[in-house]
Amino acid sequence: MQFDPTEEQTMLADTARRVGEKFGLDYWRELDAKGAFPSEIWQAVCEAGLCGVAIPEEHGGSGLGMLDLAIAVENLCAGGGGVTLSQMFMLNPIFGGVTLARLGNDDQKAAMLPGLVSGELMFAMALTEPNAGSNTLEIETFAEADGTGWRLTGQKIWITAVPQAHKILVIARTKKLSDSAGKTDGISLFVIDRDREGLTHQAIDKLGTRTLPSSMVFFDNVRVESTELVGTLHGGFKQLLDVLNTERVVTTSGLVGTAEIATKLAINYANERKLFRGQPIGSYQAIQFPLAEAHIQTECARLMNYKAASLHDNDRPYGSEANMGKWLAGHAAGQATDRAIQTMGGMGYSKEAHVERLWRDARLFRIAPVSEEMVLNFVAQHDLGMPRSY
Ligand SMILES: Cc1cc2nc3c(=O)[nH]c(=O)nc-3n(C[C@H](O)[C@H](O)[C@H](O)COP(=O)(O)OP(=O)(O)OC[C@H]3O[C@@H](n4cnc5c(N)ncnc54)[C@H](O)[C@@H]3O)c2cc1C
Q1: Which of 83, 128, 388 to mutate to test the pocket of ligand 1 (most atoms within 8 A of CB)?
Q2: CB atoms inside a 10 Å sphere around CB 30
Q3: What is the Å distance from ligand 1's center to 374 Cα?
Q4: What is the model's pTM?
Q5: Atom 2 of ligand 1: nearest residue by CA position
Q6: Which of 206, 234, 262 is the last residue of a domain?
Q7: Domain that holds residue 177
Q8: Average pLDDT, the chain
Q9: pLDDT digits (tens, 9 = 90+) for 343-387
Q10: Cα(174) to centroid of ligand 1, in Å?
Q11: Is 202 exposed, middle or buried (0-12, 13-18, 19+ CB in 10 A)?
Q12: Is residue 361 domain-resident?
């Protein structure tokens, strides 16, 4: 057990911090107000080699591990973007990169991984459906074999960054539930072009993460080529689970980044703002204690995330740690952003102070990508050996 970063990890953290701070809080406030996509920072992230941290070297990446990626994302997000920026990692190096690197064939890897690393190719991931949220195994979107490929029909909801995506990782049934050997049987993964006949999308208005659009996606008899299946036909669900756990690691990193900036902004304000006999409000325990609690929660989330990522990198099971890290980080970021608003009083409610955006954006991650209730279900069942409750 050792808690010190390597020299390489320290350099990676510094690079990520520099890129994140170059596009700091003001950049994100402006984009949030316009609902504009963060293209400039993503280009800078890719140019600095950060998108390709965990992608194999032969495909243009650095071939490092999930722990290195976690450290990079955390520092990048703490520069101003917060957890929203980590969502771009979930979509591209995770749902694009990890999926293709692990499950793709040589042609798929060669065709897509270099573009992902350079930022020329953008991904979205379409799993959630109106009738299948947390109950993922009940998805209904169906890919019907037509002899040379498939025809895809169905509907997805809440899909991030669809208008910007060139490719979508679609999770669909390839066997009707009634013909399956079990609920996990008969689900397959496809990477298809976003821009394809029969695929339409419609934006959903929402509370936060306003720089990354969310959409309903409709598949109306969309042609899927035989070359677009990724992984094993009918066996995609189990393969997807491991990718989802890497998504949790990146989510936790982003939330730790959010918690870090929100706490810092609150402390700076509390130490400057003087009220009652010229004392800084930061000298009151009522202000200090909740920020100290947020800091404790953040450190716990960070450590659990490093443990999850290290286990992953050593080919050991890490699902519990990835889920627990995400649960802790959701709470840490919630506490840090909420208390930052409270610390700043009326200023905390202003756009000028930035913390309202961090609070709005962080709130999502107690619901998605996995809700905290589903994390507790997982822990109760898998770590505590209690009966499955649902
Ligand atoms: C802004 C945004 C972006 C998203 N981006 C994507 C994306 O890019 N791709 C994608 O596929 N999906 C995406 N999602 C979907 C997200 O993963 C789901 O919203 C999430 O998994 C929860 O599903 P749901 O919204 O259907 O809630 P539901 O599953 O309907 O759950 C509602 C509530 O019931 C609770 N609940 C449900 N079942 C149980 C149970 N068994 N025990 C205890 N409590 C339970 C949940 O925890 C939750 O609190 C996004 C969502 C949002 C809001």
Answers
A1: 128
A2: 11
A3: 9
A4: 0.98
A5: 158
A6: 234
A7: 124-234
A8: 97
A9: 999 999 999 999 999 999 999 999 999 999 999 999 999 999 999
A10: 23
A11: exposed
A12: yes
